[in-house]
Amino acid sequence: AAIAGDGPSGTEDYFWPKRGGTYIGHGAVPFDAPTDFSKAAWTWDNPEDELFRHGPVIDGKKNVYVATAIGRVQKFSPDGELLWSWRTELSEGRVVTSPFLYKGRLYVSSMG
Fold it and tell me: Please, which domain of life does this record's source organism belong to (predicted)?
């Protein structure tokens, strides 16, 4: 399913477009990692105690997209603010793969 609305920025300028990082999945990116690990940049409380089996993806504006095992996809700002949340219908099943960004769209697969 492609999720419309306030989706990813740009077309190919993503920091981490899919599981494994790049489209060829080698996990290497040309960015420096943060050096201060004394505290998290931001946290989220996960009020429904949902399971996250899939890695996040990051668009060109450093927004973070995560998918839960029950079928919820969420977009967070670089500062951790929840920007939107979308969920599959029960008939569509749960999300079974990591989300990925491609040509201005966010994609997920479900079991429905």
Answer: Eukaryota
The residue written with tokens 């993503």 in the block is: 14
Q: Which residues pair with 59 in a beta bridge?
A: none
- Average pLDDT rounded to a whole number, residues 35-61: 86
Whether 29 is covered by a domain: the verdict is no
Q: State pTM to two decimals.
A: 0.77
34 is a domain residue: no
Token pair 């599959």 is found at 88
Rounded to whole angstroms, the Cα distance separating 109 from 100 reads 10
Domain encompassing residue 77:
1-22+49-112
Sheet hosting strand 72-76, strand order edge to edge: 57-58, 64-67, 72-76, 82-87
